[in-house]
């Protein structure tokens, strides 16, 4: 089960990175997108620290926020139907056979891809042209790309500030 969940995420990341490197205009567009959160424009290179403690204890969103109540996350309490009745979840199946790792899979793709694109520019190995990148598929449980993706990361925004 773990292998199945991580294989699909790895395959999706591989395809997304290959498409970004193959299309430098789109890569640049994604990296240069302005960010606005709740009406506030976030300047480029701003480091944001999310106060998860406060979010998870905000009485505006949670009844009895300081109490341990795991049942609050049951389907009936979320207001969102993940059982396949919303078409945006169709890639994860539907009904009783829906993917049990849907949330894990989404997080397993979105966060690494965002980090890859935010912190690095990506180049193909020396001498290789974007048109030469093999975008054909191979047969298997997931639609993997034929061959491995080799790209060169160029630091754009360091994860940590420089040591002084």
TrEMBL record:
Pfam families: p450. Heme binds at residue 99. It is found in: Membrane. One of its GO terms (molecular function) is monooxygenase activity. Keywords: Heme, Iron, Membrane, Metal-binding, Monooxygenase, Oxidoreductase, Signal-anchor, Transmembrane, Transmembrane helix. GO terms for cellular component: membrane. Gene3D superfamilies: Cytochrome P450. This is Cytochrome P450. Its cofactor is heme.
């Amino acid at each position: 089960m773990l292998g199945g969940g991580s294989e699909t995420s790895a395959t999706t990341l591989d395809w997304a990175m290959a498409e970004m490197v193959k299309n430098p205009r789109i890569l640049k567009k994604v990296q240069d997108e302005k960010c606005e959160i709740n009406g506030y424009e976030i300047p480029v290179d701003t480091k944001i620290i999310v106060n998860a403690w406060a979010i998870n204890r905000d009485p505006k969103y949670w009844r009895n926020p300081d109490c341990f109540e795991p049942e609050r996350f049951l389907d009936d309490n979320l207001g969102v139907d993940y059982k396949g009745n919303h078409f945006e979840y169709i890639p994860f199946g539907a009904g009783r056979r829906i993917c049990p790792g849907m949330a894990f899979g989404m997080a397993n793709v979105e966060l690494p891809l965002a980090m890859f694109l935010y912190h690095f520019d990506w180049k193909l190995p020396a001498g290789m042209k974007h048109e030469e990148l093999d975008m054909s598929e191979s047969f298997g449980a997931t639609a993997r790309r034929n061959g491995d993706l080799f790209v060169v990361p160029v630091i754009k925004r360091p994860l940590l500030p420089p040591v002084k």
